Amino acid sequence: MRQLVMWNIVTLDGFFEGTAPWELSWHEQIWGEELERFSIEQLRTADMLIFGRRTYEGMAAHWRTAENEIARYMNGLPKLVFSRTLKSAAWQNSSVVREDPAQVIPALKRNGCGHLFVFGSALLSRALMDAELFDEYRIAVAPVLAGSGRRLFDGPQGAQKLQLRQTRTLQTGGVILHYGAGAAA
Q1: DSSP assigned state of 102
Q2: Long-range contacts: 85-94, Cβ < 8 Å, 24+?
Q3: Segment 121-143, tens digit of pLDDT
Q4: In this structure, are strands 79-82 and 94-97 parallel, antiparallel, or unpaired?
Q5: pLDDT at position 185, please?
Q6: CB 73 within 8 A of CB 107
Q7: In whole angstroms, what is the distance from residue 180 CA to residue 185 CA?
Q8: Angle value at C-alpha 13, between 31 and 42, nearest 5 degrees
Q9: How far apart are CA 103 and CA 136, in angstroms?
């Protein structure tokens, strides 16, 4: 059975994006050889990438022309973009899904053996968190206090207990946290 995994990078004060769309200059503070290797490791376990429209558009704009190992995975993997407004998906191996993600994702999880990764996509992630569909949260914390921007975990949601599975400290000062859904045993 596939696992649904959230992957995001946030600042220490909880922002995943600046005050403007795609304002991510603080990513430079955490990026390095270790995070690049980790990104490749994750992509090797992926069956599919899942995005909301805004993240899809930004990712497609970047990765379609990039040329490195991460780009080969990003471009080669099947991708779903959940959107009611996007007319078509031009990025290689992409499909637009108009249905409710909380209805579609459970069926996707039952078919396959690799991970389903949600990158960015705060609005989509919120819907999936509210439906308690994530099996794992992988969050990299950048050693930056942004002061303002868009928070990843923002808005109404009931409490969800998570279990810390792994931590990894990076030479850049960042930390990667792996949390599993469900209460600790």
Answers
A1: H
A2: 85/53, 86/53, 86/56, 89/56, 89/60, 90/60, 91/56, 91/59, 91/60, 91/63, 91/64, 92/64, 94/56, 94/60
A3: 989 999 999 999 999 999 999 99
A4: parallel
A5: 43
A6: no
A7: 11
A8: 40
A9: 19
